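Take a sample.
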Amino acid sequence: MPRNGQSAHKNEELLKLRDAALQLGISFPTIKQWIYKKKLRSIRTAGGHHRIPQSEVDRLLFRTRGRTEKERNLVIRRVSGRNQLVGRIDAVRISGLMAEVKISIGGQQITSIITASSAREMQLKAGQTAAALIKATEVMILRV
């Protein structure tokens, strides 16, 4: 049953606490505390176990990279570009010299085409946390 009247999307993946903690880079006791303090939304199974919607993990990914704000800034801002979106790698498909990398960010998906050697060098795999760096001379807004 959903907790506090909140419902998860029907097809959304629900993670066990240990898996969610691993993705967020936090300990098992910390994730339990976040649930009790309502910092992290969970859904209870029929057996009373907590499950974490993938969207909740995605929402917190940036906040948990690095222990302090200074450390987070060092991790994210090693390049001059500031349009960085942190998310989770959904898929890496390598074909010949190129690789297609799909990153899920807040329920949206960004696809990037990079060299296969770069994907191998970075050891990109589905489930890992990654940042999409967007460098463009123009950003267009579309009202939806």
Remarks:
- The first helix runs from residue 17 to 24.
